[in-house]
Design a protein that fits this description.
With about 210 residues, the chain is α+β, with helices and mostly antiparallel strands. Helices cover about 30% and strands about 25% of the residues. Strands 1-2-6-5-4-3 form a 6-stranded antiparallel beta sheet, with helices on one face.
């Protein structure tokens, strides 16, 4: 009668189970996010709330994060949201920025306008991220979420110019209505507002009884 020898599988399994991380409570393996190579390859940008989304890096930004943010915010309000600007009617500008002493990290968010809500900031349509990489340098990213391709392209062109230090609105654009109307034209389209003195004269005339013949 053959003698049965003890199985070698049991000790082997016990050794494997004793290795760190194999019992289920060890450190989890983090997945690798492989990005395509190339100069225009998108990067993964972290957004508030732990959300991640693909964002395109804008090359050529000059200056500190705070300087870049100041130029972009000034350009957006002077061009996109100026009287007669392309985004004035249907979108809202919102931004957050750290103090220069804390690095100056900033985010600009263009929201769709939702007049049905007490806070009219609707869904995010276009995002600009500014991440400091040194005292005088920063990484600039943009992400289009809900803008049309034409608007997103025009906005990215503006952001690129402003980030490089060029102020002012675009002089030419293939996007209809993208160039803001001159101030005098925009003002002419609005009904003339009466001054306080004119309003007082109108009220006085209305209150004065008509003279009897």
């Amino acid at each position: 009668m053959p003698v049965r020898r003890p199985s070698l599988w049991v000790p082997a399994l016990l050794i494997v189970a004793a290795l760190p991380g194999c019992a289920g409570n060890g450190p989890e393996l983090q997945s690798l996010n492989l990005q395509p190579s190339g100069q225009n390859a998108p990067t993964v940008a972290a957004l508030p709330g732990g959300e991640t989304s693909a964002a395109k890096v804008v090359p050529g930004a000059t200056g500190s994060a705070t300087e870049i943010y100041s130029r972009l915010a000034r350009g957006a309000m002077s061009c996109w949201f100026a009287a007669g600007g392309p985004l004035k009617k249907d979108y809202i500008f919102h931004a957050t920025a750290d103090a220069p002493s804390r690095g100056g990290k900033a985010e600009i968010v263009i929201h769709e306008r939702d007049p049905t809500q007490p806070n009219p900031r609707g869904p995010k349509a276009y995002l600009v991220g500014i991440e400091p990489t040194g005292e005088a340098s920063a990484t600039l990213t943009v992400e289009n979420r809900k803008m049309t391709d034409a608007y997103a392209s025009a906005m990215t062109n503006d952001v690129t110019r402003w980030a490089k230090g060029t102020d002012g609105c675009a002089a030419t654009s293939s996007v209809p209505g993208w160039i803001p109307a001159p101030p005098e034209t925009a003002d002419a389209a609005q009904p003339a507002k009466k001054t306080k003195a004119q309003k007082a004269k109108v009220k006085a005339a209305q209150a004065k009884p008509a003279q009897q013949p």
